[in-house]
Amino acid sequence: MGALDTWVRQLAAVVLLAGMVETLLPGGGLRGYARALLSLLVLLVVLQPVAGFAEGRLRLSLPGLAGGGGSVAIPVGTAAAQAAQAAATTYERMVTQGARALASGLPGVLSARVALSFSPAQAGGLPAVRLASVSVTPAGTAIPDQTLAAQVRTALAAGLSLSPEGVAVTVV
Q1: 88-144, pLDDT tens digit by residue?
Q2: Domain 80-171 maps to which CATH number in 3.30.70.1350, 3.10.50.40, 3.40.50.2300, 2.60.200.30?
Q3: What whole-number distance in Å separates Cα of residue 96 and Cα of residue 154?
Q4: pTM beyond 0.85
Q5: What is the CA radius of gyration of the chain?
């Protein structure tokens, strides 16, 4: 109950402060800006416990902790964090398979091996491809290796939303 009491007190204090500031402000253009700022402050206090839960932690004040008072971070939402990690791993595997299929399906390519480097996923998002390394085996056509490498680089750069410099192609 200590965390709930603290949160209610913070909310009451911010609402009282907002009311006092709004009363003391003269009318005019400044009053609208102050109202918006105070409304955001109240919203932040209201959403503070939700933000801690969404990040996979909840900070509670517990009497008697750390020599008479303090707070402790309690892990919550570990199943959600594990599910997000599994989704990111599955996404990376599917993007890699799609890139391999794209490279293998190009004219003059017999087979392709693709290795992708991903940036860490942002909160609530999926990881983004940073670099691609592709090794292609030509199908024995008359396409020169440099031309084939350029075609693969261009196709994968477009398909993965990368610059062509982010795609390294080796013809083996």
Answers
A1: 888 888 888 888 998 998 999 999 999 999 988 776 677 888 999 999 999 888 889
A2: 3.30.70.1350
A3: 16
A4: no
A5: 28
